Amino acid sequence: MAMPLPAPDEAAPGGPPDHEGATVQETFELFSASAPKGWRVELIEEEICVVPPANGEHEEIVTEVVEQVIARRTDQRLRSFTGIGLSLPGAGDAVRVIPDLVIAPKGSFDDREEWHAPAPVRLVAEVTSTSTASRDRLQKIRAYARAEIPVYLLVDRETAEAVVCSDPVADDYAHKSVHKLGTAVPLPAPLGFVLDTSAF
Known about the structure:
The chain is α+β, with helices and mostly antiparallel strands.
């Protein structure tokens, strides 16, 4: 679900932006500029979403995935990135997302840009939170598939499942495998290893 911009005393000095009459894209830019540190502002399917900082359990899962990718990757060029902004194609306005985790070759984001093209991305991962679960399950599947990101890993804490989406076709993935958390989860190429979710 979309969240409103934080109240003025929580946001940057001056409070939330005055966005009356602005386009969705302009409003998104204003919200991004005034969001408090640690909050993420995303634009997906013409909806602006303001996401609060993640809780500890969420970050423990992300860290566990990162450590396993580094230890088990078959391509030693691959690196893990958190906090990377991606600019994706959309049905209308461009989509702006900040995935929980991005896997891409070293040097893929070696610039000063805030938003990056998805071409080098090999995998994106999202770990659901109360405020993001619905969007992670629906809109982000469409967004990542349209961008032709090879693998989308969704760790759904509410259903206690890991969903591996691969082979993007149009605005969906041709293959989706669902695994209970606590089991071994095979990740397809270009990752090519089995993710152990027993620590999730």
